[in-house]
């Protein structure tokens, strides 16, 4: 534990009887502290393991829009893994994770931005696709 004091007088008051100040204090567990997942581990996390389907909780709460998070910008907090749209949003989450970790996706999701491949729609080499 680290203790910070305003001045020398406060430090001496604490040192004279530390139990007076720490007896009824509940210290947060490791689960309550968000930590960043290393890049090589973040790349291994599959989409099913990510909270809110890999979308950025900070963008969802602050801007009210759904944005896919970068898989390499991943944090674990309270047994959930969150991805973020940018490094700045990841830092915002680290400062106040309680504000963002309960974010939920809307019932009606916007359409995907991913382009649709016409070849994938064909179903294989044998099929023929007609376009008007």
> Mind telling me the C-alpha Rg?
23 Å
Indicate the overall shape: elongated
Identify low-pLDDT runs: none
Number of helices in the DSSP assignment: 7
Query: Order of strands across the biggest sheet?
Result: 1-2-3
Helical content class? 25-40%
Estimated share of beta-strand residues: 5-15%
Mean pLDDT across the residues is 83
First-residue to last-residue Cα separation = 70 Å
Classify the secondary structure makeup into a structural class: alpha+beta
Largest sheet: 3 strands, antiparallel
What's the β-strand tally? Answer: 3
Q: Give the quaternary arrangement of the chains.
A: single chain
Query: How are helices and strands ordered from N to C?
Result: HHEHHEEHHH
Overview of the molecule:
The protein has 132 residues and is α+β, with helices and mostly antiparallel strands. It has seven helices and three strands; from the N terminus they run ααβααββααα. Strand 2 and strand 3 form a beta hairpin.
């Amino acid at each position: 534990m680290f203790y910070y004091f305003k001045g020398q007088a406060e430090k001496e008051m604490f040192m004279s009887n530390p139990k007076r100040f720490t007896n009824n204090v509940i210290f947060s567990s490791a689960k309550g502290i968000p930590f960043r997942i290393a890049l090589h581990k973040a790349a291994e996390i599959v989409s099913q393991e990510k909270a809110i389907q890999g979308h950025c909780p900070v963008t969802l709460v602050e801007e009210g829009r759904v944005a896919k998070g970068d898989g390499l910008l991943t944090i674990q907090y309270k047994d959930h893994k969150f991805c973020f749209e940018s490094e700045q949003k990841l830092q915002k989450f680290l400062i106040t994770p309680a504000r963002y970790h309960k974010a939920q996706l809307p019932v009606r999701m916007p359409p995907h931005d991913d382009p649709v491949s016409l070849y994938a729609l064909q179903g294989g080499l044998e099929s023929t696709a007609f376009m008007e």
